[in-house]
Amino acid sequence: MRPYKAGGLRVDLDDIESRIDLHAYVGGETLRCIRHNETNPSLHVYNDHVHCFGCGYHDGALVFLTKYWGISLTEVVHRVIGNLSKTPHVKDKPIIPSWDDIREAARMLAMSPVPRNYLIQTRGIQPKIIDDLYLGWHDNSIYIPHVANGEIVNVKTRPWSGYPKYSSVKDATFRYLYPYDYFRRNYSNPRVCYLTEGELDCHLLLQEGLPALSMPSGVNESLFRWLNVFKQFDRLDTMFDMDAPGIEATTRLTKDRNRLGRTFEEMLSPTVLNTWTWPLEWGKDIGEAREMLVPEIKEDYASI
User: Tell me, what's the pLDDT at 301?
Assistant: First the structure.
């Protein structure tokens, strides 16, 4: 709950944000990012937040609208509440692919040598992980299903070309870190969790027997949301990319303070936060650096 006083009105920001459809206020699913100059729009609009796949900018709906409209949060809250009271929005149920759709996408990937070779040869992902995590190929995009409690809860897609770099099912929220079911099946109370930016990096660690999870909405997603999950481990190791957004996100863990005036590292205690960095010549992400980096991670895990 995020209580907020807008004039004489006391509201719960989380409740308001959960009831709005951001598309109704910005008129589309993709915009040019307000944070950096770009020709191809890469700011992807979800129902309750935005994320730029170009620079990593990420904001909740209400905070984004303060910047988009150039007005205060109080003014945004009053405008949104006024619109909600006039035309209450009933969200359509997200259209999530079925298990039959996922199996068909997996069959198509097995029959499509170009994307399959990209995953295996370029990204270094083993066929067993591709099969175990139901990776697929559909509509000229790589399919990455998010499965929780035996159900498809969302699907990330990575188009072979074009923008945005990643997308997901419209209006379907991510309620679990990836890959929820696979992690629960294969790791029983691990002492450490290796947290990666995205699913493909996570695959590289999982196939080496390392307890890894990834954030479904990218490196700029607030980790405070997953605090109760991380506190189940003795140690949380973040493994963000060695580029500007990744380094910035790593720094925020120990510098930025929440509404209670505490950093993520302080809120995480007694779980220990360990942030990994590596020489940039190895590569900017785990995939590029895997030949040098993965052996170091395995050695670290063996010593725990």
Answer: 96
Half-sphere exposure of 283 (CA within 13 A, CB side): 13
Using CA atoms, how far apart are residues 199 and 185, in angstroms rounded to an integer? 17
- Give the pLDDT means over successive 10-residue stretches in the chain (304 positions): 71 76 76 80 81 82 87 84 59 82 97 96 96 96 95 93 82 88 93 96 97 87 85 96 91 83 92 96 96 97 93
Range(s) of the chain covered by CATH 3.40.1360.10: 177-304
Q: In the CATH scheme, what architecture does the domain 3-86 have?
A: Alpha-Beta Complex (3.90)
Query: 181 is written with which tokens?
Result: 């079911």
Q: How many helices (H) and strands (E) does the chain have?
A: 13, 13
The whole-angstrom separation of Cα 254 and Cα 244 is: 16
Residue with tokens 């720094």: 251
- Nearest by Cα to 22 from 72, 63, 71: 63
Helix or strand run (H / E) with residue 62: helix 61-69
Beta strand spans in 81-197 (E): 136-138, 141-148, 151-159, 192-196
User: Vertex 157, ends 152 and 161: CA angle to 5°?
Assistant: 165
pLDDT of residue 88: 46
**CATH number listed for the domain at residues 177-304:** 3.40.1360.10
Give the tokens for residue 55. Answer: 């620079």
